Structure formats: C-alpha cells, structure tokens
Amino acid sequence: xYRQTQIYVDQLHDAASEQIHVPAMGxxxxxxxxxxxxxxxGTKYPSLIMVFHDQAWSLSSNGxxxxxxxxxxxIWEYEARHVYGNPSRKWNHSWLRVTGRWIDRTxxxxxxxxxVPIDIAGDALPLRYLxxxxxxxxxxxxxxxxxxxxxxxxxxHDIERRVSMGRASRRLDPRLERARKFIETHxxxxxxxxxxxxxAHLSPSHFCSxxxxxxxxxxREYAMRLRLQRSAQLLANQDLAVFQVAELVGFSxxxxxxxxxxxxxxxxxxxxxxxxxx
Length: 278
Fold this sequence. Notes:
- The protein is an alpha+beta fold.
- Helices cover 45% and strands 20% of the residues.
- The chain has 2 domains: 6-169, Sandwich (Jelly Rolls); 174-277, Homeodomain-like (Arc Repressor Mutant, subunit A).
- The protein has 10 helices and 10 strands.
- The termini are far apart.
C-alpha cells in the first residue's frame, strides 16, 4: 500500500513547552542508499523514535554488529549515537524527535530496550500513532503539550505492552534467565562478567552476545542501567545524601557515580533531585 511522505518541522520552537515538545517528525521518508550517522554524547540530540518499513540495519550501541531493523522500532535516548541505513539500496522509515521532561521521565522508568531494534510485529502500530501525532501537530500553529502527552503516553503504553507480550511468548533460555536473575540480585555489587557467565555455563564472549540478543543490552550495560535506575528512585528520599545513594547501588566513589548518572540522565544527581521536587 502506498503511503505518502509527510515531514513536519516546528517553526515556533522558541515557544516550546519544557514538559513535552516535538521539534520534527517524518512519516514514510524514503532515503537514498547509504548509512546515516549522527547524535552522540555532547550533541544535545533529542530522544528519537524510529521505525523502518523495509530492509535496513542499525549498528549496535557498542559498535560491534549490524542488527536487522526491517519492520522494527528503535528508541534512542537523549544524546545517543545513531548509525543506521542501507548501504546498497533506498530505504523507507518514519521517525519522531521528542524533548522535554515527559520523555526523560518515561525513558528513566522503562525497561523497553533502548538503542536496539524491537520486534513489535510489524510497522502498523507505530504508523497509527505517528499519523495521529502528525495530524495533531498540523491542526494548530502551536503545539498543545497536553494533547501531545496524551497521544505519546498511549503510544508508549502500547509499545511496552507489545514488548511485554513478545517476551512472554518467547521461550527464554533458562541459562540466560538464571544469569539475568543473578545480575538483578547483585546489581549493588561491582559487576563481574566471569561470575555472570558462569551462571549461564557459557564463555564470557558467548554469554555477552546471547544475553544482548535476549534482553536488549549487554550484561554489563544491563547491570549499570539497573544501578542507575535504582539510584534515581532513591534520590527521592531527601534523608539520603548523594554519597549514601551511591553506596546503596554499589558505587564506592560518589564522584564516579555522579559522572555516570550525568551521562545517562543529562543532569547531576543533585539537579535531578531538585527537578523531582519542582
């Protein structure tokens, strides 16, 4: 079925809401053969939701392999590095850039895999929501943050539901599941790849590749996400100093913890705590 290309760019971005803002989006944009590279730390590139309608690939976050992305969804968080495309033929994709407190809060609290292609049984789901968002943006010269948040909240809920259904229907390798539970119960301790791989009775290299395919992130990154997500929850407790939060999630060096926290969330632990109080 033919789908018309639609591109939206906000012309009144100076009045953008701090809660939620869509600076640009595209539906069924056809690209020439080639690979696109942009984003990365320090670029202040918005969070990005993208779906590929035909054959394309995305480079894994650690740059080690190309992952098939046809009829799959990818969500990149703020400042993430994006490398994707098809070097040998034209390719078709839809995309949505989002900024603001809503998307930052949503990505912090989700277990949806970030930066990797997600199988959501085709591209009909994201296209339906992207079209509704596009229609809303084009209906008014100024963005309505309440309407955008409502639409994106529904979109996100549907993504999480599809991801959860996919995990439930996929037969988990009991060895990898045992290793995942080990990581989750020891996330407040320094990560030890050899110990985690032993839980799965696999070599460290084999374990890393299979764990990433099963759970959407390499085991070390998976453990780090858990530690930082837990620290974000603990920062809501005003009685805990930042160094105490760091210790509770397994960091002996509060400065190192603060640097990693800033890399993931874009603000220091102290600034994050203030934002939660606002």
